[in-house]
Amino acid sequence: MGALPLLHPLSVPDHPLQEPTLNLSETTRPRRSALLCAAVLASTALLATACSSSGSSSSGDAGSSAGSAKITLTVGDFGTFGYKEAGLFDAYMAAHPNITIKEDTTTGEADYWTALQTHLSGGGLDDVQALEVGRIALATSDALSNSFEDLSKVKGVNKGDYLPWKWQQATTQDGRTIGLGTDVGPMAICYRQDLFQQAGLPADPAAVTALWAGDWAKFVQVGKEYQAKAPKGTFFMDSATGMFNGVVSSSTSQYYKGGKLDYKNSPSVKTAWDLAMQADAAGESAGLKEFDTPWQTAFANSSFATTVCPSWQQANIQKFSGDANSGKWNIAQAPAAGNWGGSFLAVPSAGKHKAEAEALVAWLTAPEQQAKVFQKVGNIPSNQGAYSLTAVTDFKNPYIGPNAPTGQIFSTAAKAIQPAETGPHAGDLQSDFSNGILLVEQNHKSATDAWNTTVQQIDSSVQ
Amino acid sequence: MATSTTATGRAAGPRPAGTADPGPTPRRQRLRTLLYRLDSKGSPYLLVAPFFLVFAAFGLYPLLYTGWLSLHKVSLYNVNNSQWVGLQNYSDLFSGSLSRFFWNALGNTLTLGLLSTVPQLVMALGLAHLLNYKLRGRTFLRTALLAPYATSVAAATLVFALIFSPEGGMANWVLHLFGIGPLNWEAGHWSSQFAIALIVTWRWTGYNALIYLAAMQAVPGDLYEAAAIDGANRLRQFWHVTVPALRPTILFTAVVSTIGATQLFGEPFLFGGQSGHQGGADNQYETLGVLMYDQGFRHSMLGRASAIAWSMFALLLLLGLVNTLIARRLRRD
Fold this sequence. Notes:
The complex is a heterodimer.
Chain A: H1 20-26, H2 32-50, E1 71-78, H3 88-95, E2 99-106, H4 109-122, E3 128-132, H5 133-139, H6 164-169, E4 180-192, H7 193-198, H8 205-212, H9 216-228, E5 235-237, H10 240-249, E6 256-257, E7 260-261, H11 267-281, H12 293-300, E8 304-310, H13 313-321, E9 329-333, E10 339-346, H14 354-364, H15 367-377, E11 380-381, H16 390-393, H17 406-416, H18 426-441, H19 447-461
Parallel strand pairs in A: 1-2, 1-3, 5-8
Antiparallel strand pairs in A: 3-10, 4-8, 4-9, 4-10, 4-11, 6-7
Helix pairs in contact in A: 1-2, 9-11, 10-11, 10-18, 11-18, 12-13, 18-19
Chain B: H1 2-12, H2 26-69, E1 72-75, E2 78-84, H3 88-94, H4 99-131, H5 138-150, H6 153-163, H7 170-177, H8 189-217, H9 221-229, H10 234-245, H11 247-262, H12 266-271, H13 288-298, H14 302-332
């Protein structure tokens, strides 16, 4: 529901589209009671799913935070953090018999964040709260940073373990680190090897990487070559917005400079915008709205040949392309390394069991635990220690290019990411620009009109 | 009413017979009268008081608080730290940086309101008229009419979003049968508004039809008989007997639908998918409700969202006034 960059990677696909169809077929049943029942049941079921972002329960026990007293820690998160899946909560509870952990999870990050904001001012926070990378600049700003504890001095936390830029993102101006990195979203390019072959392009990951290595302009150029011999009805890319985000994310100067919003003078924004316009003018883009239902359907319909592929996108590709397209996807390095997505864990200052919560966060974000999560659900660790673990480097995705060095591609990209200055509105700008490109792709506005509308949109929302 | 008459009746009862027997002392008598009077005059207020208490807490207070917020710069995650800005939020809306989006949203709210309300009420009236006849399976038909109303906004909208999808949606398939090229319904200005109006119409037509049906059944049968004797056919009976008799009901449904249309939020918000929060990439179906959500909950600007809420309130008062004037005009006719 939210803006592109603000969705948690693994929550993206869960668009509740399947249930409602049941509803309609039920209404043709002739008996009144059955019909009423069906309608009522269906609507309550939907209400229940729609409202599943229930308010979080604050820590259950009122007891003191002394070592041996029984306490309950609540962990508020969204999407799939993978702790429960990897059995980490159970392992922690087994090692600490006095602690019970309750996960308070919401599917969509946008809903989660809206609730978290209200809880920050109105109370009802969990002992541990997850923060998405799109929110971290806001959380570290003066307005919010005092609501969270400094985690840099917690026992067991070693600054050198984390990717420097990831650590920096969660650090305030006065040097407090309010969140520890969980996962990152290094980018690759996922491509359809069958369509590439039909268009006369190489299909091998190494050869494909070489086609556009080092320059996004080459990527657009390859698109032109693809389009010249493209199988009928297919496009080179799903949407120019994905590429726009790719170009901006792989640059060291993005939307902010010197603590101020400076997108109008940002070279990467200009390059990304121009390339997106070029790609659209050359008819390379299917013009789909990323993450929307038609975009999901287009995977199954084989409407496009490439998509910008942060680590968490792998799950989407498999889910939406389906078994019929098995073995057709492959993966190559992106023209330049960049990050899209990833999260942090923070401890709110209002919590009753802060010391215990901090210890839990330190343990959950340690290399061994991050590697376990990666193996189970595929979230790329933010902890550098994990990159040398063979579980990460030797990882191969059975659905996407079974023989492609997927683990290698992502860990190389993660290490090559350059830190970039960010700010409280970076997430908003990313979605405003994605929207601006849609104005050209879907609403057929001129590039100039679309740019002006985007600027107006930004001016109206940045106070 | 009923309690008050019996109470006074009983109080007045014993008096004429009481001359021989002194009965209760004058003071007690006076107290009793006072109590009876309190009961008759006061208890109605007592009985309706809970509603007004709840209304004050959950209706009036938020209304006033929103008004107060609209004069401040407040962020969602730091509500207690607000800063007085006077009427700046309103000037932002009417002529400032947000004005383009505000006037656009106001326009969309009105066009979407007309597109959804008018066909909805006309169709509801027609359906009610048909259901008023003796039909086989009438109860089933009447219940079926209410089924869309019982469906949640989310369910209905998501199904319609599938129907109007550019990737294999049913609407485009139908257009294709007539040789018309595929349409990106969601991206177009009028096509998206048409689709959303259709969702609203689908959900509310049955509800209004049932209200009309109830009112129709209260129309005395002899009016129709008299009209039939005068040689009026069914259509003329509908226009000259049913519609005039239904006038107050039509006004009621018009008011309720207008309020609903002004607050339209769920349908455009969900129909737009990833760009629903701003009513489409080009804000082509952004209503005031969606704009308010976007400003308040996505951009955390509660002051501005409150200003939009009060503008919507003012708009509703204005529409209410227009409606009253029309109603008075109709009554005079």
